[in-house]
Amino acid sequence: MPTTTEIEDFRRQAHAAVEWMADYLAGVERYPVRAQVAPGDIAARLPAAPPETGETLAAIIADIDRIVMPGITHWQHPMFFAYFPANTSPPSVLAEMFTAAIGAQCMIWQTSPAATEIETRVLDWLRQLLGLPEGLHGVIQDTASAATLAAILTARERASGFSGNRAGLGAAPRLTAYCSAEAHSSVEKGMGIAGLGRENLRRIPVDGRFALRPAALEAAIAKDIAAGARPAIVVATLGTTGTSGFDPLVPIGAICQRHGIFLHVDAAWAGSALVLPEQRWMAEGMGLADSIVVNPHKCLFTNFDCSAHYVRDPAALIRTFTILPEYLKTRERDRVIDYRDWGIPLGRRFRALKLWFVLRHYGAEGLRARLRRHIALTQGLATDIAAEPDFELVVPPRLSLLCFRYRPAGVDPAAFDALNQRLLDALNDSGALYLTQTRANGALVLRVSIGQTYTEAAHVARAWAAIRDTARRLSVLRDDHGERKA
């Protein structure tokens, strides 16, 4: 047990830490959004060797401001418009504090029954809020990448008659996988990790709205079958990372059913919007999926990491991952869920606690109100961009994401990519806001993802003013060919 002195010191420092956290959440806007340091700056502030003698908690905590904060990009800043959000909220932070203090390793039911049973119940709450079909069983993975890898591994085992884990892949036919050209990089990464080979992933062309073309998928599957391969999995995406494409689940699901192919749906970002009845259009055909992933740690105000992975056939998932050494056997095993059998790691954090806190604190109404606000702000920004003749709205707003580029008159179109890269760099280097880039129809475009917990109309207006002003300042420095003036 800790000594009385240790506990009292902890009590004092913990109170001070909570004050720091509250001040940080209240005053995050005083920081530049993206860290303004160069590579090696933070490491240079750290001793080359570990300390020989211990230091006080007070001294260590003091270095949060001196060493850590200069190198932090502030994902909770309301001017954070990059990537997708990794949102937190006061109830989620409090739950993480309880999780850390309890310090449970929740690999099986017996090692913390509350962790298992709350996870089971709260994921069914979330399933209901999202309008997902009954018959789906949920588990919390750390990220959507892990959920997608779990789906690929399950599909691999199912397609090989569950021989891959036992005998290796040498005896199995060549297995192929399919996703859209806009799908997340985790699909390709998962193919490599699963031993299926990245060359066996078919990236299917997309239509004008960046959605997978079912006819092209059917043709690719037929070609592989004719060549002696066995199609194992299709990964359909609802809300692609770069261009917010929504793959049509109904025809894709029908194709998968015809050929006996596992269908995984990556709704990591956009899936949160299913809490809105008016956005349920995107879920048409979801009942055909074998597995689905939605990230509460993106848009549902739950600290990273918390990825909700739903499966139709938990027995297949469990068969893929279960190994039962003597030291993990328990007398309750046949009557409980042991979530360590539902994914890659043995050890598991009590992630369900923060989701439980968030769902209880905000309720369905609170979640819906915040998501509707983000979507409305995105629509408003799209209207502003479309009204400016020097800007082009390349990807119209879909939920809370849009893509645009700067294309001033009199500049050679061949210089647009370089000009937009300079615009992006100037904006991000300013610390006033943070955007990312992607390519749409071959052109470099700037992405705006509006979804940080406390982003309001004033923040979006400030961002748009900074974008316009910076773009025009850059234009003054260029000649008609897009070359910088001397």
Short description:
With about 475 residues, the chain is α/β, with parallel strands linked by helices. It has helices at about 5-25, 55-70, 90-100, 115-130, 145-160, 165, 185-195, 215-225, 250-260, 295-300, 315-320, 350-385, 415-430, 455-475, and strands at about 135-140, 175-180, 200-205, 230-235, 260-265, 290-295, 305-310, 390-400, 400-405, 435-440, 445-450.
Describe the structure.
The longest helix has 35 residues, at 352-386. This protein folds into three domains: 4-73, dopa decarboxylase, N-terminal domain (Up-down Bundle), CATH 1.20.1340.10; 104-349, Type I PLP-dependent aspartate aminotransferase-like (Major domain) (Aspartate Aminotransferase, domain 2), CATH 3.40.640; 363-476, Alpha-Beta Complex (Aspartate Aminotransferase, domain 1). The model is unreliable at 479-486 (pLDDT under 50). It is built from 14 helices and eleven strands. It has helices at residues 4-27, 57-68, 90-102, 113-130, 144-159, 164-167, 185-193, 214-226, 249-259, 296-299, 314-321, 352-386, 416-430, 457-476; strands at residues 137-141, 175-180, 201-204, 230-237, 262-266, 291-294, 307-311, 391-398, 401-406, 436-440, 443-449.
